[in-house]
Amino acid sequence: MRVRFAPSPTGYLHIGGARTCLFNWLYARANQAAFVLRIEDTDQERSKKEYLDEILESLKWLGLNWDELYFQSQRFEIYRSYAKKLLDEGKAYLAEDGSGAIILKMPQKTARIDDLIHGAIQFDTSLIKDQVLIKTDQSPTYNFACVVDDAEMNITHIIRGDDHISNTPKQTVIYEALGFKIPQFAHIPMILGEDGGRMSKRAGATAITEYRRMGFLADALVNYLMLLGWSPGNNQEIISLADAVKKFDIRSANKTAATFDRNKLLWLNSQYIRSTDLNKLAADLKPFLKERYAGQEDNFDGKFLISILKLFIERATTLAEFADALKPFFVKEVEFDAQAKEKFLSQDLSKEFSLLEKKFSGLSLFSAAKVEEAFRQAVAELGITTKQLIHPLRVALSGKTVGPGMFELIEALGKQKTLERIERVVKNR
Q1: What tens digit of pLDDT does each residue of 102-145 get?
Q2: Where in the chain are the domains?
């Protein structure tokens, strides 16, 4: 058994292409088969190195390694030789306009394929016009190059999107004309946007690179792609690549279109963030921290970063959001949320904050427990409720109204930053 994924470097790798690659990869690995990557770069004008680099890098990031790599642009003579063979056998003819294009005579018959997902599909080839094999610029057409390569590379199973079903009868005719064995086909239903229509950029049709840039983990994205058209069973939603290989069969893929659900992807990503080893999570976060907090690189290593990750890990859905949440630890002055400032810092808190400043300054051990003890002493002396002071204090220290445990946050900030931020509120009255 041999399967392939054949992207075209005329654009970036998107969700649909990545899922097709994943299903091919899973089927290959589940059957100890070869997984071939073929770059369909016959369109010399539109094929770009930047797209190729992005496709290869994205596949590596997703963990979808390949066993063999081919480029169609290096195989033009092979396609021309097969076209000449059909020409010599009278199965194809030259275009009448003298352009040099080679065209296949379409037979009048009923063609049938037994699709591994959809079952039997029949086509009336009399409704299909004669097919161009070699274009006027002597480059091959998609359908012709595809058939020649799949035959020469001994591809036994072709797994692709069902938008290719219309190409299948054209290709089966070419297989038969060349005397090649027709492989087995499996056409995966398309992915719809959340509104039930075609995917748009707003509804998930974004390059894999963008998902990486937004802070999605590769394992989480791969897990989500699996669920877009296949299920491991038993209502299981979280599954690793290694475990999926043990269960995957393309015949069990869904027959109906999958719907992209960004909230489900975010939920899955949050689950993976929580289960990631903290040292690895810190390493994954560093590029996001460097992008946001230049000059703070010394604080991106060691126990400090690990300690603050623990505070926010339960709330994070993406690495980008995680990095944003850590802002209070890497800036000199926090930026107050406008509504939070109006609600909690508009009144005069000089007395309350001055007392807190005094209490905190006197702590020799600046731990969460000692900070809490000092805070409660201040509240008792002021004769107010905890709520009256804890919300203004959170805004003063982090700029926000929500976050991790207040006293754990203060311990992680440290005495100096905590006192500086309390002093800032007192001075700005």
Answers
A1: 999 999 898 889 999 999 999 999 899 999 999 999 999 999 99
A2: 2-71+191-266, 75-188, 277-329, 338-427
Neighbouring-strand partners of residue 121? 113
Instruction: Identify the CA nearest to 124 among candidates 65, 80, 170.
Output: 170
If one counts every other C-beta atom within 10 angstroms of the C-beta of residue 144, the result is: 27
Q: Could you report the per-residue pLDDT of 343-402, keeping only the tens digit for each?
A: 998 889 899 999 999 999 999 999 999 999 999 999 999 999 999 999 999 999 999 999
For 75-188, which CATH class? Answer: alpha beta
DSSP secondary structure string, 134-202? E-TTSPBPHHHHHHHHHHHTT--EEEEEGGGGGGHHHHHHHHHHHTPPP-EEEEEPPEEPTTSSB--TT
In the sheet with 2-5, reading across from the earlier edge strand, the strands are 68-71, 34-39, 2-5, 157-161, 184-188
Same CATH topology for 75-188 and 338-427?
A: no
pLDDT surpasses 60 at 204? no
**CATH numeric code, 2-71+191-266:** 3.40.50.620
CATH number, span 338-427: 1.10.10.350
- Output DSSP code: residue 67: S
H runs (alpha helix) in 41-117: 49-62, 76-88
CA-based torsion, 142, 147, 149, 155: positive or negative: positive
For residue 13, give the H/E element and its range: none
Amino acid at 238: I
Let me know: does 62 contact 222? Beta carbons within 8 Å.
yes
Compute the average pLDDT of residues 221-250. 95
For residue 111, the model assigns a pLDDT of 85
